[in-house]
Amino acid sequence: MKLTYNKLSNYSILDTETTGLDSRYDDVIEIGILRVRENEIVDKFHTYVKPQFEISDFITQLTGITNEMVKNAPSFNEALPLALNFIGQDVIVGQNVNFDIRFLTAERYGGVLLTELYSDTMYIGRKVLPHLNHHRLSDLANALEIQFDTMHNVVDDCMATYNVYNKLHELAKTRNIDLNANFKSKNKDKYINFKTLEINDDTMLKIDSPFYEKHVCFTGTLERYPRLEVAQIIVNIGGFVDNTVTKQTNFLVIGDYNYYTERTGKKSSKRIRAENNKLNGEDIEIISEKVFYQMLELNEEG
Q1: Which of 151-155, 230-234, 259-263 comes out lowest in average pLDDT?
Q2: 107 shares its domain with 40
Q3: What pLDDT band is residue 113 in, cutting at 50, 70 and 90?
């Protein structure tokens, strides 16, 4: 799948709510889709989804979705064909939509390829509104003066994404911004080091990376690569590596074994701090080592 910055007239806007960010272990609990034809919304799809395991208190606080709300909902195996049929062959548009696509195409559910192209308002927002500290849906909506009162309601989020998508393209056209051009760092010197790390390959610097200008913290044992090696990749891409979770941290990457065992067992202090930060509205995601590598591979594919 490849990212497209071109303005589309026909597409589907996708948003999901899940119990986490790893499609191997976590479950989808809500799906929302808007169908757009000739730039107008013509239909919508929505369903809650019953997960394999109970929804944790943290996820309920975060999403507002309770176990009672999903107890009579279809399973994901029942909901997935309905969602795929609604999307059809459409290009998918969304906010940080790689996570949503990853769940709908997870190997454990058959790994169905949805589309060759997708478009992401987060990446478009970085190019059109580079001055923003964060490019979450709420940040983009506020900057574009788009009404956005709710979080973690998939249909409302899809509607906000639709408005943000159109407004960003309008601004890009007005300001003569070439969205397909490569963008360089505004101040490459600020990408210092993690302990002794310095940039050693500035060809990796890329605005389309999920880790560009983001703070990343690691915890647990990484199974695939040494932590120092992946930390160097983050620095080269244009990100920061934190020693511990702070209010600036945008991603907490948990070693795969620890991510799995912490779902039901004792959580690390870094994970507890990250969950509290997220509940307090900070721009942070808690991801497994596998998801982290998937995000790096996406960046490499361009």
Answers
A1: 259-263
A2: yes
A3: low
Q: Is 112 helix (H, G, I), strand (E, B) or coil?
A: coil
pLDDT digits (tens, 9 = 90+) for 87-96: 999 999 999 8
State the residue for tokens 């070693």: 255
H/E run at residue 179: none
- In the prediction, which pLDDT does 192 show? 42
Number of other residues whose CB lies within 10 A of the CB of residue 40: 10
| Residue 1: pLDDT over 60 | yes
**Short-list 42, 51, 116, 58, CA closest to 284:** 58
Residues 56 and 193 in one domain: no
Average pLDDT over all residues of the chain: 86
Instruction: Give 204-259 as a DSSP string.
Output: G--TTSTTTT-EEEEES--SSS-HHHHHHHHHHHT-EEESS--TT--EEEE-HHHH
Question: How far is residue 298's CA from residue 290's CA, in Å, rounded to a whole number?
Answer: 12
Specify the pTM.
0.73
Q: Look up the CATH number of the domain holding residue 93.
A: 3.30.420.10
Cα–Cα dist 82/156, whole Å: 20
Judge whether 182 lies within some domain: no
